[in-house]
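Whiteboard transcription, Tuesday session. T.W. wrote the structure tokens on the left side:
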């Protein structure tokens, strides 16, 4: 067998004489450098204001932020680095009350706390449901049905794609999976419509996917790991449990406004004509016809998802079931004999287990940042230097949104960004004086939105990378939309803080 027949065993070009090529050496250097920085930080003395355990947690955070930002290892693999580093940095921390070290057994238990939280269980169940919807073809059918009702004019198609982002967020509880499905639908339409990739219509469609899936995710608690993770941190720190319906009522209006802003910016920078796409309506009908009638699998899954959404929406009102329990019941229903929605063998190959590992470890880190007082220590020191406690409430919100939004740009995984930043956001909110008139849980939730919409380049989120991979738009074109979108989002956030969110009791 020659090299062309077996690419995996193909002979690689020889390195130049005198040069030794070591695979992964650059990434190994990144890991070593990150560890050295964390050890130097760990050796510093911050006095009694920061507990030994909190000091160890901040050292872990510094190490992991450097790992995530430099992408020394994949995000999935980074979950193991997070668990090990948190265990080692906290195991040797001396408890002031007992004068003894925690030990690796206790430290490891703290590092794995996230895997027994309700938030992690909810994400596990949500990913199973999202995988089932993708495999069944139900998501694609819903998307095409929406487009068939919107019309075949370019602006109507763009509006239909944005609407698809919002509707599918209710059914697909993973933003990256939603983006993948949306991208597949858009690329299919571009091909059957015979639209060139360099045309403004094609660019606009994929840019709406890149930004729109994340914006839609702000309005739905179960849209993915980041909002679930945020709600769990808020509940741990403040005791305020945000229900599915409450999150929808607080976040969806803001998300819808930002969706319209996104449409306006796309139209501004990538204008399209008003003429109807040739054979557009007929093409969409043909795509729907190709899917055939609703299968038993799709019908049963649709029933399960509608019941799930109904139970989420009526939680705390008509029944005592929380979101995690409802999601687990939905997964059980999916696997019931005779339901024929999916099988374990099928799901185990589709569910992103790396995401689940990272999410569980990230929850553990966030919980430790809150319980150890490390997040509050960071926030208080920041406040002491800036004197933000004396500022007007709206100015506090605007500056804090810009501050945390800029930091969020350093991360490519929203779960990692939430783990690193949301506990600090909560500590920041807790450190504000009562005279500021801002509720801790409300301000924390609002500032989480900045982490979600901080998106300028394809590398900032998996959703944008999926859309960018189609080679339809450039990074520069994405930034052209992303920069004004982020700035307008902060202004809209201030407007909502002065009006709607204050009226409904968020602030």
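and on the right, the sequence the group agreed on:
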């Amino acid at each position: 067998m020659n090299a062309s027949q077996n690419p995996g065993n193909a002979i690689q070009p020889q390195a130049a004489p005198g040069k030794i090529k070591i695979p992964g050496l650059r990434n190994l250097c990144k890991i070593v450098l990150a560890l050295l920085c964390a050890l130097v930080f760990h050796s510093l003395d911050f006095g009694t204001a920061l507990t030994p355990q909190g000091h160890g947690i901040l050292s872990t955070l510094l190490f992991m932020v450097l790992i995530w930002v430099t992408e020394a290892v994949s995000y999935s693999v980074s979950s193991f680095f997070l668990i090990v580093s948190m265990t080692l940095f906290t195991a040797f921390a001396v408890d002031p009350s007992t004068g003894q070290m925690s030990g690796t057994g206790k430290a490891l238990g703290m590092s794995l706390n996230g895997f027994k939280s309700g938030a992690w269980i909810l994400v596990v169940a949500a990913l199973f449901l999202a995988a089932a919807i993708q495999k069944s073809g139900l998501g694609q059918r819903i998307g095409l049905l929406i487009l068939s009702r919107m019309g075949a004019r370019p602006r109507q198609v763009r509006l239909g794609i944005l609407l698809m982002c919002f509707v599918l967020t209710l059914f697909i509880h993973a933003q990256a999976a939603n983006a993948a499905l949306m991208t597949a639908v858009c690329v299919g339409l571009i091909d059957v419509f015979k639209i060139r990739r360099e045309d403004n219509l094609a660019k606009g469609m994929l840019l709406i996917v890149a930004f729109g899936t994340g914006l839609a995710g702000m309005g739905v608690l179960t849209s993915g790991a980041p909002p679930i993770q945020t709600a769990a941190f808020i509940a741990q720190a403040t005791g305020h449990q945000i229900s599915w319906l409450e999150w929808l009522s607080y976040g969806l209006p803001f998300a819808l406004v930002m969706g319209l802003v996104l449409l306006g910016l796309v139209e501004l920078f990538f204008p399209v004509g008003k003429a109807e796409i040739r054979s557009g309506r007929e093409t969409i009908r043909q795509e729907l016809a190709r899917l055939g009638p609703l299968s038993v699998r799709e019908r049963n899954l649709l029933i399960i998802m509608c019941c799930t959404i109904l139970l989420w929406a009526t939680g705390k009102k008509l029944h005592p079931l929380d979101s995690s329990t409802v999601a687990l019941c939905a997964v059980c229903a999916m696997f019931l004999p005779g339901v024929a929605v999916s099988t374990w063998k099928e799901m185990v190959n589709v569910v992103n287990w790396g995401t689940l590992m990272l999410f569980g470890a990230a929850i553990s880190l966030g919980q430790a940042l809150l319980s150890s007082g490390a997040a509050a220590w960071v926030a208080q020191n920041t406040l002491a230097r800036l004197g933000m406690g004396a500022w007007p409430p709206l100015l506090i919100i605007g500056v804090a949104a810009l501050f945390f939004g800029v930091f969020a740009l350093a991360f490519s995984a929203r779960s990692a960004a939430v783990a690193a930043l949301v506990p600090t956001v909560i500590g920041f909110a807790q450190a504000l004086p009562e005279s500021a008139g801002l509720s801790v849980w409300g301000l924390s939730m609002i500032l989480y939105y900045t982490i979600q919409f901080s998106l300028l380049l394809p590398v900032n989120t998996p959703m944008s990378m999926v859309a960018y991979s189609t080679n339809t738009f450039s990074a520069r074109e994405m930034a052209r939309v992303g920069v004004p979108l982020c700035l307008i989002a902060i202004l809209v956030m201030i407007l909502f803080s002065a009006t709607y969110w204050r009226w409904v009791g968020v602030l």
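Someone added at the bottom: The two ends are 69 Å apart (CA to CA).
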